[in-house]
Amino acid sequence: MTEQERIQKQRTERARESTPPVSVDATKGDQLKADLDDLLDEIDEVLEENAEEFVRNYVQKGGE
Amino acid sequence: MSVAKVLGIETEYGIAGGPDADQIVASSIIVNAYAQEGRTRINWDFEGETPDMDARGLPDLTSFAPIVETHLANTVLTNGARLYVDHAHPEYSSPECRTPLEATLYDVAGEEVMRRALLVANEMIEPHQAITLYKNNSDSKGNSYGTHENYLVSRDVEFNHIVRAMVPHFVSRQIIVGAGKVGAETEVGQESDPFFQLSSRAEFFEEVVGLETTLKRPIINTRDEPHADAERFRRLHVIIGDANMSQVATFVKLGSTALLLAALEDSGLAAFPAMPRQPVGAVRSFALDPSLTYAVLCEDDRERTAWDFQNELWHLANDHVERKGADAVAPPDQVQMVLTEWREMLDGVRDDPDTVADRIDWVAKLRIVRGFQERHSLPDGDARLHAIDLQYHDLRPERSLARRVGLRALHPEDEVREAVHNPPEGTRAYFRGQCVARYPGEIVAANWDSVVFDLGEGPLQRVPMLDPLRGTRVLTEELLETSATAQALLEALDR
Predict the structure, then answer these.
(1) What is the pTM of this model?
(2) Which residues of chain B lie closer than 8 angstroms to A62, CB-CB?
(3) What is the CATH classification number for the domain harbouring B240?
(4) ipTM, 2 decimals?
(5) Nearest-neighbour CA in chain A from B420: distance (Å)
(6) CA nearest B104: which of B334, B403, B397, B446?
(7) What's the total number of domains in chain B?
(8) Which pLDDT does position B55 carry in this prediction?
């Protein structure tokens, strides 16, 4: 099995474990929600820890 | 008759960190870091810069003309772009491009230039001084900096007609190309206390027409500095855009505007929708309305939503393309691509915004802001929601949220890497970039419409490039290939 196939297989297996079976008409909305959940997990990881200070310290001089 | 829509985008990047958190110092470090990497040491030449010329033809004594700062770091890149410090921001002005797709590529290349400069700069300074860059337009505290588009326009079009034709587009296009913003930051914006706005720039506009870019910002900027033969050309300097992270949004912003300008040049004002009676009120109100239902009264006594304006303008552009084509803007396939993307964004944003979250920045941003707020039960205005807004535009790959939301790219990464070094082929940017790459030791300065050589003896020699469509690869490649030195090039040009 090539590296690519192996990764694909892992992905497929993971997807099977994590995705409950869905009826056909519910899929689109559920898929969007699942995608957003994954995205929010990632944002939880990379968002600056001290958001208040991060935002407060970002002060610019006007430009143009 | 429409002239070739030579176009490009200038972007001032937001900047934080650096020694003593001084933004002018940090911006200079960024520009010099890139220059010292050997990419370029060529200076910008200020000869011919007249940013205080007013397209209305009359001196406006109440206007403040922009000041050209000549002492700050300033370079020309081998891809034909200008990289410099503008006020307290590093700015990348893309080279002149021939099509909206190409101009999008060189805008994205600018992000890559800044990212590389950031890496080199942060190697040079202490870790606790690390600089960060943001491709955005405001700091959420009332300070704004610009993303300006430029379009070559025929001098035959009356400026007054440009105003009447383009105001409806500039107030309404934010529904598809707005970058989105959490909250409001100007006095007038805070009166409405919005949770979210479609455009980050809308609340900063106070006039319909004017020369300023930093005070009393106008929807139509009258700076008349064509950087080309002023008898034939204008350069429409558009200051009302947001910095887009979505490549598709940049492409449609440029493509739609270029098509409408070509339609105006070819067929006049008649088919354009009437202006809103209160354009400044319109641009601000539309920004406050993600439901896209707010309508404004127009000069023909009809009411229009931002979507209505865009729908009419799309039909105008589509009809124009069907009747006359739009070779001035791009080859037919690309013109169709503009119309198709523009249409899909319009229909998507009205019917089911989730379907265009992969190309409209404000939709993508609002989706994660709302999602994050719900997940963590945060009140409106929470600092973490503002942090998401800021980090959406963060250039650091490990922090950028725009990289994570699933925006569709138009240009693969290898194409972007090429564009970091190589100029567009269809404008004078080709000659400028090639000269900088081939004869770096003999060029003392360059600007939009000339390159200045110093051969060591005799006077400096300026090669003028007043026509943006000369100096292309087709016209100059052989000359450059057969000129091993700058002296040989200048001799060949003299013949």
Answers:
(1) 0.91
(2) 87, 143-145, 214
(3) 3.30.590
(4) 0.89
(5) 24
(6) B334
(7) 2
(8) 73
